Amino acid sequence: MKKIIVLSLIYCAFYPAYSQDCFDKLAKQAVVIDSLQKVVKTEKGNKEHYINDYQKNSEVLRDSIKTLNSDLLKLEKFKTDKKIIDVQLKQKNDSITSLKNQISEKNQQSSIEKQKVEKRLHEEKEKGRNEALDDIINSYKNKKLDDLIKYSSKLSVQRDLQLVGNNAEIKPILFDLEKFFLAIELLAQKFDAAQIKNAQILLNQIKQQSSLLEKIKENLEYYKDFNGELKKTIEKLIDLDKRKVAANDAVIQKLKFNDIVSELTNYMYNYFEYGNYPYLSDIVLEIIKRKKLNPDADISDLLKKLQ
Length: 307
Description:
Structural class: mainly alpha
Number of domains: 2
Oligomer: single chain
Shape: elongated
């Protein structure tokens, strides 16, 4: 560049007429040349930058292609594995379907067998029930009421009533026995005139002849008298407690106890069948128990049990 300028100046020195014009052209050319050199330099730099970017992008692309190839291989392997798995799944599904069918068949067979067993059990149960029912019926048929009373109880009668159902031959007998045992229970309870009256009505409905039946009727008839006389006896003993206190005097205790026994003996002698009334006999025993330990023992609560 410098050489061109120097040569131009020398030339212009020999041509004075064109010196100014020549100088201007040279200056313009120098500017153009300089601009071109800058453009070339810039293009060169851009080219190098582009080459560098291209190399870098090529590197990235190669890595991406490599990765894609690896992924593709994995995908191909996955597809292959998937085919194997699909085949295995189909085999498993087929096996499951086969097992379900087998289970269904087994369940059907089991259901059929169960129905057969239940039917046999029901038949055996009915057979056993009928045999038991026949035994029960035979145990009551053509038997005297006294014998049935001796070998029965309220619970056994109520149980058999449920078993025989509406058997027209046996059910009335069981009802008669039930009436009898309900009447017996009244003798073990506090005297109740209304219940006694109702029991007497029921017992009079029994058609069979029975000495035990007549006896229970008699006991019910006289329960009021036995109960009333025991009340009077206890009232006498309570009056004795007021008139005579034994305290810790052994002699007086013995005398008082003898008086107590005398009163009780009179009751038991005159009403010797008091033992037929469990409720009353228990009270008598309680009086003896208390007074034996302490002749002054309070027995007013026992009187309340009879009122």
